[in-house]
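Memo to structure team: turn this sequence into structure tokens by end of day. - J.P.
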Amino acid sequence: MNRFSFDFRRTPRRWASSARLHVVGASLSLSLAACATYGERTQRAYGDFEAGRFDTAQAEYADPKVTDSAFLSGAEAGMVAMVAGDFVRAQEHFDAAYAEVREVEDRALVSATDFGETLVSFAINDTFKTYEGEGFERVMLHGCLAITYLAQGKLEDAYVEARRGNKLLESEETLYEKKYAAGGLGHFLSALAYEMLGQRDEAFIDYQRMVEKGVGEELAARAMIRLAPALDRGSDVEPLVQRFGADPARPDGAASVVVIAGVGSGPFKQEFGFALPVDKGKVVQWAVPTLVVRPQVVSSLVLRVAGAAQSVRTTVIEDVAKVSKENLDDRIAWLAAKSAVRAALKYKLTDRLEKDHGVLGLIAGDVFTVATERADLRAWQTLPDTWQAARAFVEPGSHELVLDAEGGASVSLGSFELERGETLIVVARSLGSRLYAHAIGGRRIDSPAPAATDAPVP
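Reply from structure team:
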């Protein structure tokens, strides 16, 4: 018999009241032992991440004792590795996170363990249940996997992951009967992979979906205008030409530089709730999570092609903070209902304990209620505030590239020899005023520059 299957109905009456008190005590001990919130448990790891101590942060997040969640261990450690430029290791961490989610999602029937966790999440606390990630977090996981594949030149794998993420997004939209202004990251990565594979018709469709959803609209619209003549789809882009202008002239056989950047730090959860005294000293506790948006130092990035008097600014293709808030708001009624059910159950338990044990039982029940009714504050905290992207077309040949964070640092990416039609990808992340960037592709013709700097933008 596991610790969740105790049946008072089969317990002799003289032992039942004592058993109830023991169960309350055991549950209270478990709750108090794990009373630290996710933010408190991972405070050191997040501090190391923000400070650029990536090896330490990655090891801390990968420790299941720190996150108490296999999904979050993989997701957090994967993001740290990706910002550090270790795309192979990042993929491994993200794969581990996905394996945890896939195992849960693929179960055809609810197991006894799941049933026990579900019961205890209703009766005691949401944090007793395995954390499977919010819906938008699972979407972001596949977007991050797509970036790691893209960085390794695995283009087919990249668009498979991007499409999988967008399918999950559609599932969330069906569940909550709404349309999120989201999916830009997945569609952009998929379109980019298709273009690099020469499948421009498929790329056009992904860009078109971005325009339809209103995510990264200008960037996607200009890509559609650029691709339309070769696909004989001029009529499809006429309204876009009127809004954004005609396709600007590009050098013959132009190469391109694409920036994919996580900008800033995403929101975190905090608890909102109250303890309400009711009749004869009993207490009812209610608690749900809310999202807090962090202040952002950097608004966007600018890619400069030194010596060519050319620069492009990134545009938002995925507003992580906005989508995460909408996704939580859609779940809040369910979370509030669960908290209300637990409040009623704990009220009845306190009433029973008071009848059996007098004041001692009343105190035990009230302490148990207040201590155990906590909001689940677990969340993927290393996500950026926004995902942004930009694309510059340059003549084939040698180019020195510089990336600036508006409001933050500037990084010299180095000089690269680019061939006709080649695409160089820059994966970047701003953290506070710091900027980290990694160039993939081209032929470097100078010594590698530091990946990050605190130097202000000139």
